[in-house]
Amino acid sequence: MTDIAAAIRGAFEHTDYDLGDVAVNRQQVRVPVLREGADPDALRAVIEEAIGADAVVGVTVSTETIDGEDTIGTVVSFQHRP
Length: 82
Description:
The chain is an alpha+beta fold. 28% of the residues lie in helices and 34% in strands. The protein has one domain.
């Protein structure tokens, strides 16, 4: 599953979005973006391009505190379908 995190990180290297620690737990993936109010459609497009649109199911985008800090960011969570 670490390949998923690496693919997502690689895809975001070519964008203006900075990421926190991408977490993969079984098939649940959590992608923290260090920008509050990031465009959900743009984030989803980058993720779908990185791992394939058919592999991304049940996308949720929320605004949360990142890494227990005072940083507010946008978090994309989804199920990965291998």
